[in-house]
Amino acid sequence: MKHIFILNSFSLKKRTLEIENRISKAAKKLKLEFIIETNSENISTEEIIKKYANSQNVIYAVGGDGQVNRVLNAIVNTKNKLGLIPLGTGNDFYKTCEEMLTQGDNKVDLVKINDKYFINIACFGIDAVVGNNTEIIHSKIIPKNQRYNISLLYHFFTYKPRKMTVICNDKKITKNFSTIVVCNGRYYGGGYKVGQKSSILDDKLDVYLFDSMSKLNMAKLILGMKKGQHENSKKLIKFSTKKLEIISENKIESNVDGEKMIAKTFKIEIMPKKQSLYFNKELIREIYEN
Question: Higher pLDDT residue, 124 or 149?
Fold first, then answer.
């Protein structure tokens, strides 16, 4: 089994060569058979992975949550296993993996949203608008741990709740929602633990629906998320499910594991087949220590 590393040169930029060297040194120390690939304007992550579609490897997403999402979608329905080297802005999915997974092979929940897949969190409303502001989220001037907060502040005063209908188990809820968060994993936004007890191993999604609220209450809600205080909000409707549908009269945007999606209807469901994920704590430790 080979270990294939897919570097996202667009996020790593000047660090690409440095990261290649660190991965190479760590992989050799652990005696892994490995290949390092880097995407570019001429070849995408998805095109690189096509070369390995008919073999069984661990394919590592080297970067952030968006890179994990791209690699995931490229290896679904192949024999390849997902791996991750957290070198992105938020690394939110990695935080969940640290809390829940063991070294080596794991089987985790895979979620389908329309014709794509995700593994961590999909959000709608102000959270999506904030996460999709790539100029701020990928800024090299703003510190990584402050980018989500700066984007949030930028959109806070102008955002208006969106009318959406959530359908689950033949029940419909129509409101002007401030935000909707569908959790497989626990973290988003660079460390906001919205899914306090969400699990990537339990075959279910935790859904958070936040009704329209004043700017003051929204500020309190967002500030309280890192401490889990949002669970006590009177504006919260929370439930667990295997599938749901989110509908809007007009197109709305979603942020799905760091990637932007736009549609009027989002059909979301846990897949019957689990995703193979090779969690290589030893390798990650070696790369960080180099």
Answer: 124
Query: And the tokens for 95?
Result: 């935080």
Going from N- to C-terminal start, the domains of the chain cover 2-109+274-289, 121-270
Instruction: Give the pLDDT confidence score for residue 269 in this predicted structure.
Output: 98
pLDDT digits (tens, 9 = 90+) for 213-232: 776 776 677 667 767 778 87
* Model pLDDT for residues 92-132, shown as the tens digit of each residue: 999 999 999 999 999 999 999 999 999 999 999 876 666 55
Query: What are 275's two structure tokens?
Result: 């995703």
| Four-way CATH pick for 2-109+274-289: 3.20.20.80, 3.90.480.20, 3.30.1330.30, 3.40.50.10330 | 3.40.50.10330
- What's the CA gap between 154 and 141, in Å, rounded? 16
| Positive/negative CA dihedral, 77, 202, 5, 257 | positive
Instruction: Round to whole Å and give the CA distance between 115 and 120.
Output: 16
